[in-house]
Structures are given as C-alpha cells and as structure tokens.
C-alpha cells in the first residue's frame, strides 16, 4: 500500500511515515487527555453541591455554575475534534500522494500549523475552567478548595503535562512535514500538470479544478467541526435548564427543537448534499448541478453569518465555546467565499475538454483529445 502511494520517492515515504507516526502519537496523547478531563468534569460536578451550600452564605462573584459546567463539558468536543483532525490529515496526505498533488501538500503544511495553534489554545482553555481569584468569593475558588481537600482525587488540570507535550510534538511534526513538503514540491515539480500537455490554458483549468476539489475537503471538515461544537453547546444549555429550573417551558422545548432541526438539516446539506452536487457537476460538466451548489453555498454563508452574529451578540449562551466557534465560523466564511469563486471558475471552464484530459491523466481514457486551442491539434501525455 505504501509503495503504491509513494512509488520510488524516498521523500514520499518519509512524509507518509511522519504523518502516520504523528497520527498515532497525538491520538494516544489526546485519548489520555480526554480521559483525565472526563474525570475532572465528574469531580467538578460533584463539588458543585458543597460549593453551592456556601453560595447562600456569601456574595459570590465570577462565573456561575452554568458557565463553569458548560465550559467544562464543551472542552471534551475539542479533544475529539483534534483526534479527528489527525485522521483527516493522514487521509489527505494519502490522497495527495496518490494524485501527486503538490497543492494539497502545501495546504497540509498550513493545516498542521493551524493544529499547533489549536493545541496551544487547548492548554489555555483547560487552564481557564477554574481560575483562582485571591481575596474573592467566587464559585471557582470554592470548587478549587473542595478539590484540594481530597488528596486521593485526581489533581485539578492533571492533563496539563500531556497537553504541553502535544504542543511540543505538534511543533516538531509540523516543522518536519514542512521540510518534507518542500522536498516533495521540488520532486514532483507539478508533474501531474505536465501530463495534461503543453497548453497553458488547459493546465490552468486543471489547477483550478484541483484547488476546488481540495477546498471542498476542508469545507467539509471545518463545517463539521463547527456543527459538533454548536450542537454540544445548545444541548448542554438545554440540559442545564432541565436540571436546575424544573424543566424547560413548552416554548423553550419548541425553540430548542427548531434550532436543532434547522441546524442538522443545514449541516447535512452543507457537508453531504453540496459536495455531492459539486462532484456530480464536475464529472458531468452539469451547469445545473453547479448552479444548485452555488445557491446552496450562498445559503450556507448566510447561515454562518447569522450564527457568527449570535456568538457576538450573546456570548454567554456559548460560554466555553465562543472563541473556537468564532474561529471556525470565520474560517468557514473565508473558505465559503473561495469555494464559490472556484465553483464559478470551474463552471466557466465546462465544455473545453478538461474532463477528457483528466480521464487521460488517470488512465480512464485512451483516446486522443482535442486542445482547447482548436480541433486540429492533438495531445501527448509526454
């Protein structure tokens, strides 16, 4: 399998080995972090009862129980996303090796750099769950004091050494991959485009096609990442009402159900239906499919703008997740604009012979094809 993907390239083998080691090591560490955070979440929830008994005797400031509980629980979603990101980068690299797609390899360099930043924010988010404020009667101070009284319990933020290890290792892996990616860039030399022929217009069209396919993959990942966080926040907020306030009102139940249904429908559309429309449109050069994709993409952009506005207007509703939600939403908006532009460019290139030449490169079409410069010229894959 590795020899088929990497061929005779030593740098391709290095890249696959490094990416595979990265995935295994980081996933193992994140699994440990997730386990420790789960224990910490249970300890904090258990301490709420004793802390709230003191709550009635003092004027307590700082984050409330709901905010602390939501911040603690939402952090688990980030660990899962980080694990999924490791699998995602390995799959993308295998795909890039198979197609000798240097554009995707360069995109993976940026993706690894983003994961370094994500790992750093993970440490900060975990440290900010409970912050001791000297001389203040805060709920966080009370919980920290209660946790400290139990010497047999797992220490607060016991996952910190592992989180720091993830940051350090991600810096090493990302730096190593950047060096290897540069070697692959020089080695491949855009060889896949040379197989299209000498026609610059055809090669430009193929580059736009490849970039569009690559951006679609990142669209799916980041849209799913936003959806997982958003659903976790609204479910936790709904459960908080159920536990502490005698259950949600009928109006709250209807509102929760409507938000959940609308979000799930739009998420399925953005992550499954739209990519299928784009793939069908490209393969069949169907302007109707691409038009439907562009309309759906505009709708997704509008929805993400609405959600971004909600995060800014009501940050308390998204406690513990507003920073990451803002990051994912802004990234989705930027990717969405680029995706729509590339979709429009790909649609303009329909019926110019690109599909036939893609088949020629992949070995699915053995017949000579006409150049976009005229019917009298023939192509050679040399």
Automatic annotation (TrEMBL):
<keyword id="KW-1133">Transmembrane helix</keyword>
<feature type="transmembrane region" description="Helical">
    <location>
        <begin position="105"/>
        <end position="123"/>
    </location>
</feature>
<protein>
    <submittedName>
        <fullName>Uncharacterized protein</fullName>
    </submittedName>
</protein>
<feature type="transmembrane region" description="Helical">
    <location>
        <begin position="211"/>
        <end position="238"/>
    </location>
</feature>
<feature type="transmembrane region" description="Helical">
    <location>
        <begin position="164"/>
        <end position="185"/>
    </location>
</feature>
<keyword id="KW-0812">Transmembrane</keyword>
<feature type="transmembrane region" description="Helical">
    <location>
        <begin position="324"/>
        <end position="344"/>
    </location>
</feature>
<dbReference type="GO" id="GO:0005794">
    <property type="term" value="C:Golgi apparatus"/>
</dbReference>
<feature type="transmembrane region" description="Helical">
    <location>
        <begin position="12"/>
        <end position="34"/>
    </location>
</feature>
<dbReference type="InterPro" id="IPR040410">
    <property type="entry name" value="UPF0658_Golgi"/>
</dbReference>
<feature type="transmembrane region" description="Helical">
    <location>
        <begin position="77"/>
        <end position="98"/>
    </location>
</feature>
<feature type="transmembrane region" description="Helical">
    <location>
        <begin position="258"/>
        <end position="279"/>
    </location>
</feature>
<feature type="transmembrane region" description="Helical">
    <location>
        <begin position="291"/>
        <end position="312"/>
    </location>
</feature>
<keyword id="KW-0472">Membrane</keyword>
